[in-house]
Specification:
Blueprint: H1 4-21, E1 25-33, E2 43-47, E3 62-65, E4 71-77, E5 80-87, E6 105-108, E7 114-121, E8 125-132, H2 137-141, E9 151-155, E10 160-162, E11 164-169, E12 172-179, E13 184-190, E14 194-198, E15 203-204, E16 207-213, E17 223-230
Parallel strand pairs: 1-7, 8-17
Antiparallel strand pairs: 1-4, 2-3, 2-5, 5-6, 8-12, 9-10, 9-13, 11-12, 13-16, 14-15, 14-17
Length: 231
């Protein structure tokens, strides 16, 4: 989930509305990995969402961070149904709201009830993607030239995950995106401004989807993209 500023603004609205009406419902829980070990410092987000992946995300709510024992809590909530997601930035644990057909949601029956939930984050693979840019076209144009944008990421079923920049050097950058093991997916590479090629020198015409499956038995997948000019 993105937009922590929006989450924090929304939780203020939640609290303000609840204070006026005397409502004080609470959702508490804990975040664990697939071995039932506590996940500390995970960012947990809560939002009023439909309990279905087919419905559009409202993309509003509040966020908090888990304690060292993996616990978290949201207070002063109104009665209703809430979606809860969890992320560990730049980590290898998959958000329970991603790559799933069953979203983790919980209902608060009354304005004074307390509900609890456990969010389980399974291990994934941080797919390394090398972006070669020998001419320095990315740094020369991104944020400076209109339309100069390179988008790399995957559709995690619930929302699109954009690859994060891990490091840069004089010849390009290294990015990565978190993906599940033993699951077929496609990495999307798109740009209307930059001319791109794949690892074998084939032109990527404005956008391409590269099919990938990462084996849990031998996780060694990677991708390479080349920036060779501008349109």
């Amino acid at each position: 989930m993105q937009g922590n500023a929006r989450f924090l603004t929304a939780v203020a609205l939640f609290i303000g509305a609840s204070s006026l009406s005397g409502e004080a419902a609470t959702i508490s829980g804990n975040v664990v990995d697939s071995s039932n070990h506590a996940v500390a410092s995970a960012i947990v987000t809560i939002s009023e969402e439909p309990a279905s992946t087919s419905a559009p995300a409202a993309m509003h709510g509040a966020s908090t961070q888990t304690a060292t024992d993996g616990t978290f809590s949201f207070a002063s909530l109104q009665a209703g149904t809430y979606l809860l997601c969890a992320q560990v930035p730049h980590g290898t644990l998959i958000d329970p709201c991603q790559w799933t057909t069953t979203l983790p949601h919980i209902s608060v029956a009354t304005s004074t009830s307390t509900s609890s939930i456990t969010l389980t984050m399974r291990s994934g693979y941080r797919l390394p993607i090398r972006v070669d840019d020998a001419q320095g076209l990315l740094s020369a144009n991104e944020g400076k030239t209109a339309g100069a944008h390179l988008l790399i990421g995957v559709n995690g079923r619930y929302h699109f995950d954009t690859a994060v920049i891990d490091s840069t050097d004089s010849a390009g950058r290294n990015v990565s995106v978190l993906v599940p093991f033993d699951t077929s997916f496609s990495v999307s590479v798109q740009s209307r401004f930059f001319k791109l090629q794949d690892a074998t020198g084939n032109t990527i015409n404005k956008g391409a989807a590269f099919p990938v499956t990462v084996s849990s038995a031998a996780p060694s997948a990677s991708l390479n993209v080349k920036v060779v000019g501008t349109n």
